[in-house]
């Protein structure tokens, strides 16, 4: 059976791009694959944050994943830091990667540019090695992610291949599983449609958060930036020339299981497209939010799911870590 693994950071507020680009695939894959999904709390340490907030955000994210449709009987859901092999193998991969290739990662360049490279955490630079460890530990065949993770997945493949070449066949080399164009792999900010929608963005009006109430969702989508062209073919899918409209078409197409061109054929004006997109998003999120409220009232049950998940994840990951340590020449204990 195909093995899949993916992760999501608990920082910031989960947003529509996370759902359409990744979680939707995670949920679908539970039936066809042996699926491992984790809340990657260690990754959250790469940027400044508050300890109590991290604890509660990790729990919130795990609860939300269950509310969105992850089923602990059909997948393994766990918290990354509950499985020590992630940090163990991250070190082996840090010693496989080079400083130069880590420095070339877009995410490092973007995030370190904000506060300056001098102040950026070393963990932020090393982050892709930890992400690679998350993946190779589970012998994952496929990794369902949004388009923004493409570069990290390529690096994961490079590191796995290099390790295998240096120390002998140890890791499976995984493939990224990214939604096709127009199918939610790259949901853009509603106010700045050339920038991706992001949990940590400073554009709350351009971001639909999964916990937003219907009124906020409607307001944000109705105010989404489009363009002044209101000719007869104003509503068409053309991400380069019409990024705002194309983003709405992409969102509505993904939710309703059509292509953006099919959706575009039904509209001549922006208003009705926005109204229908807003209703589709509200309808998508309402049951998730209701289920979240139920689950959040019983944190002990969520904790139990995470304990069981960590146990199963540990079994798989510890065996891979032992294999990798032996391959690289670490003396086995006792
Ligand atoms: P994170 O937490 O930023 O995002 C979680 C998932 O959501 C996708 N995503 C999007 N997809 C479409 N449009 C968007 N605007 C959008 N924003 C986010 C991301 O591509 C991702 O799939 N490095 C990862 C977490 C990670 C991971 C892993 C993923 C750590 N270890 C191992 C896969 C496998 C991240 O920061 O995702």
Helix-strand layout with pairing:
Elements: E1 3-8, H1 16-29, E2 34-39, H2 41-44, H3 51-68, E3 75-79, H4 85-94, H5 99-103, H6 106-115, H7 122-136, E4 142-144, H8 150-167, E5 175-177, H9 214-222, H10 243-256, H11 260-264, H12 270-296, H13 299-328
Parallel strand pairs: 1-2, 2-3, 4-5
Helix pairs in contact: 3-12, 3-13, 4-7, 4-13, 7-8, 9-12, 10-12
Bound molecules: tryptophanyl-5'AMP.
Tryptophanyl-5'AMP (TYM) is lined by residues 5-9, 17-18, 21-22, 40, 43, 131, 134-135, 143, 145-146, 148-149, 152, 185-187, 196-198.
Strand order of the largest sheet: 1-2-3
Q: Note the beta-strand portion.
A: 5-15%
Q: By helix and strand content, what is the structural category?
A: mainly alpha
Architecture of the largest domain in CATH? 3-Layer(aba) Sandwich
This entry's quaternary arrangement is single chain
CATH class of the largest domain: Alpha Beta
Q: Estimate the helix proportion, in percent.
A: 40-55%
Task: Please characterize this protein's 3D structure.
There is one protein chain. The chain starts with a strand and ends in a 6-residue tail after the last helix. The chain is built from 13 helices and 5 strands. It folds into 2 domains: 3-183 and 299-328, HUPs (Rossmann fold, 3-Layer(aba) Sandwich), CATH 3.40.50.620; 204-293, Tyrosyl-Transfer RNA Synthetase. The chain has 334 residues and is mainly α. The model has no long low-confidence stretch (mean pLDDT 96). Residues 5-9, 17-18, 21-22, 40, 43, 131, 134-135, 143, 145-146, 148-149, 152, 185-187, 196-198 line the site of tryptophanyl-5'AMP.
């Amino acid at each position: 059976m195909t093995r899949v693994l993916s992760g999501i950071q608990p920082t910031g507020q989960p947003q529509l791009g996370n759902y359409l680009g990744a979680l939707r695939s995670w949920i679908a894959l539970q039936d066809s694959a042996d699926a491992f999904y984790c809340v990657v709390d260690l990754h959250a340490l790469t940027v400044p944050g508050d300890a109590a907030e991290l604890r509660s955000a990790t729990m919130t994210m795990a609860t939300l994943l269950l509310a969105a449709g992850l089923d602990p009987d059909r997948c393994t859901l766990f918290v990354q830091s509950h499985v020590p092999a992630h940090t163990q193998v991250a070190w082996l991969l840090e010693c496989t990667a080079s400083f130069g290739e880590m420095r070339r990662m877009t995410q490092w360049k973007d995030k370190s540019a904000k506060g300056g490279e001098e102040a950026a955490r070393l963990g932020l630079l090393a982050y892709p090695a930890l992400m690679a460890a998350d993946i190779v530990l589970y012998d994952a065949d496929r990794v369902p992610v949004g388009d923004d993770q493409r570069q990290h997945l390529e690096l994961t493949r490079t590191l796995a291949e290099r390790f295998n070449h240096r120390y002998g066949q140890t890791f499976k080399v995984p493939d990224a599983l990214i939604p096709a164009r127009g199918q939610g792999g790259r949901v853009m900010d509603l106010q700045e449609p050339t920038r991706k929608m992001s949990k940590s963005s400073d554009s709350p009006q351009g971001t639909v958060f999964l916990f937003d109430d219907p009124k906020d969702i409607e307001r944000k989508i109705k105010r989404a930036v489009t363009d002044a062209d209101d000719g007869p073919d104003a509503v068409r899918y053309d991400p380069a020339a019409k990024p705002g409209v194309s983003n709405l078409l992409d969102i509505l197409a993904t939710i309703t299981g059509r292509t953006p061109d099919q959706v575009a054929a039904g509209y001549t004006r922006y208003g009705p497209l926005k109204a229908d997109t807003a209703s589709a998003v509200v309808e998508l999120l309402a049951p998730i939010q209701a289920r979240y409220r139920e689950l959040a009232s019983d944190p002990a049950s969520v904790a139990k799911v995470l304990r069981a998940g960590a146990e199963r994840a540990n079994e798989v990951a510890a065996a891979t870590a032992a294999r990798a340590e032996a391959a690289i020449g670490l003396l086995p204990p006792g």
